[in-house]
Amino acid sequence: MEKRAPLKPLLFAFPGPLRDQLVAAVLAGAKVSTSCLLAEYEAEKEELPPVGERSALIDSDGREVAVVEVTDVRVTRLGDVGLRHVAEEGEGYTSVAEWRASHELFWHGEEMREALGDPDFTVDDDTMIVAERFRVVEVLGPLG
């Protein structure tokens, strides 16, 4: 087996059913895009990932399940997210409104507000998000 350098982890949501659903969508090829709050990067004092960066997709059990490569990163207003991005997230949303309602529930949740250090955090049309596209480079080991 070829040894590779350690990769930065790619974590969707928080461990649990939502992360499991998102990881499964990536592995199935349905999810090729994601979005997160720019405020998350700021809270973690992290820079945005550069195009070409590879990360290890992590499941709810903390296992590396795939290597993914960033193919595009852009910062945009939440109010400017379009249907193409929504569809590429691979979560089955058929409208921007449906996608946004689901994401607002997550972003306004207790875990996210705690992670951001702001118990009253809310989003609006002017909230900046990071829209990231990626591709699976390699699936790692047996799943399940």
UniProtKB/TrEMBL annotation:
Pfam families tied to this protein: ASCH (PF04266)
Stored SUPFAM superfamilies: PUA domain-like
Ranges for domain ASCH: 12-138
Membrane-spanning intervals of the chain: none
Name of the protein in question: Uncharacterized protein YhfF
